[in-house]
Amino acid sequence: MKFLAPVSFLLAVLLGLDLMPHVAAATDARPAFRVLVFSKTLGYRHASITNGIAAIRELGATSGFAVEATEDSFAFTATNLARFQVVVFLSVTGDVLDSDQKKAFQDYIEAGGGLAAIHGAIFGPKACEDKWSWYGEMFCCTFTNHSKVLPATVNLEDAAHPANVGLPAHWERTDEWYNYTGTPRGCAHILATVDESTYPGGTVGKDHPIAWCRPVGQGRMWFTAMGHTESSFSEPPFLKHLLGGIQYVTGKSAHLVSTNPFIKTNTMKNYEHSQN
Length: 276
Fold this sequence. Notes:
alpha/beta, disordered C terminus, nine-stranded mixed beta sheet, 9 strands, globular, Rossmann fold
């Protein structure tokens, strides 16, 4: 236990993590993979970003992966991105990358890199990179607005996915619930939905996806629309959700969603629908 700082130890206990792999990782100083957390904002800035960075650092410390955090868009070069297996877009808002940086990031994902996107990083004019069609295609829908911060019921669709393992089938939690035009259903693999009957302010309908993943070229993306509140990043179930999403997009998870023709042919259709 002496290899773990007290906060890291507490987080490990809360998440039910096995500490022995971490002891080995601390001994030989070889991380399982590297994560770049990007949290630049040119639009609304979430107060939870600071908590999110700290939480991902702690997850890395307890789970054996390395974490670097930046708000510098110049980090998006082919050479630098090659150092990481995962890029986390942590409530990134606005048009934060220039054309060269976009190309480097798109090439990185399509060549096998992973994107874990959280809350405000969803595509849309009030969210992230709304003028970048590739980014919109990746999300399969467009953010429009959100409810107030309210308790609601999240229903899991794939309990075996790393981002859902160990979570309650009907997960009661408080957050800000996103609405969008278009739907990721049929374009992505839906991991969880939010029940609009359990809170006011939902406009998507009875089928309201709240977390999903999909292949992108040889890479993969995972998105959770949850994570608005600062307290989200101290909730053990949400931290399990976040850790599983990061681990999934490394491509090392046994639970990978294979590319299928339906997803490929319907991506642009859903994106175009979201623009109308």
